[in-house]
Design brief:
The protein contains seven helices and seven strands. It is α+β, with helices and mostly antiparallel strands. It has two domains: about 70 residues, Ubiquitin-like (UB roll) (Roll); about 100 residues, Orthogonal Bundle (DNA polymerase, domain 1). Strands 2-1-5-3-4 form a five-stranded mixed beta sheet, with helices on both faces. Helix 2 crosses helix 5. It starts with 9 loop residues before the first strand and ends with a helix. The structure holds FE2/S2 (inorganic) cluster (2 copies).
Length: about 190
């Protein structure tokens, strides 16, 4: 039997935001750490690291998943979408624009997780009711907003039937747009220390 030693690196293959990636990881490395440390995708945040807060939510084969609870090797051969993959270049999605418009973020630490959870909801249900939104985001914690503005933002997207994958024209470039795109990188840098 071929037994992998704990400190041995193994090659995994991921489709990350539409790009094939080969990454060498410790078998114990979480998907969240692999995304952040191996691929530099620091939009995925780490809060509780025990599956409670939802800050680390990514889409695994299109479904929301806690990247802190998954080993990177468990994601091998699968598709991973992070918050960086929502927009293309300077183009914000409708959802991101709506978060900006409704002030659905303050510190922004939870935002990537909410965006990923909400985008999955909108893929399945283009016009969710507020209670459906509330239920969908119930696994994501925000310490700042009180949730109502987040629900407003998601509901607003649902109220306008999307035809372009929830994508908008290039953003305004202001602080809210930048935060909605990938979370607050300055916060991330502090947390990553
Ligand atoms: S960091 Fe993964 S659920 Fe909190
Ligand atoms: S905006 Fe600060 S935790 Fe949600």
């Amino acid at each position: 039997m071929n037994v992998t030693q704990p400190d041995e690196r193994v090659a995994i293959h991921l489709d990350v935001n539409g790009s094939p990636e080969e990454v060498f990881v410790s078998p114990r490395l979480t998907l969240a750490d692999a995304l952040r440390e191996k691929l530099g995708l620091t939009g995925t945040k780490l809060g509780c690291e025990q599956g409670v807060c939802g800050a680390c939510t990514v889409l695994l084969d299109g479904q929301p998943a806690r990247a802190c609870l998954l080993l990177a090797v468990q994601a091998s051969g699968r598709s991973v979408q992070t918050v960086e993959g929502l927009s293309q270049g300077p183009s914000l999605t409708r959802l991101q624009q709506s978060f900006q418009r409704h002030h659905a973020l303050q510190c922004g630490f939870c935002t990537a997780g909410f965006l990923m959870t909400s985008s999955a909801l909108l893929q399945d249900n283009a016009a969710p009711q507020r209670e459906e939104i509330r239920q969908a985001i119930s696994g994501n914690i925000c310490r700042c907003t009180g949730y109502e503005t987040i629900i407003d933002a998601v509901a607003d997207v649902g109220a306008v039937a999307p035809e372009d994958g929830h994508r908008e024209e290039p953003g305004s470039g202001d602080q809210w747009a930048d935060s909605a795109r990938a979370g607050h990188e300055h916060v991330d840098e502090e947390v990553a220390q």
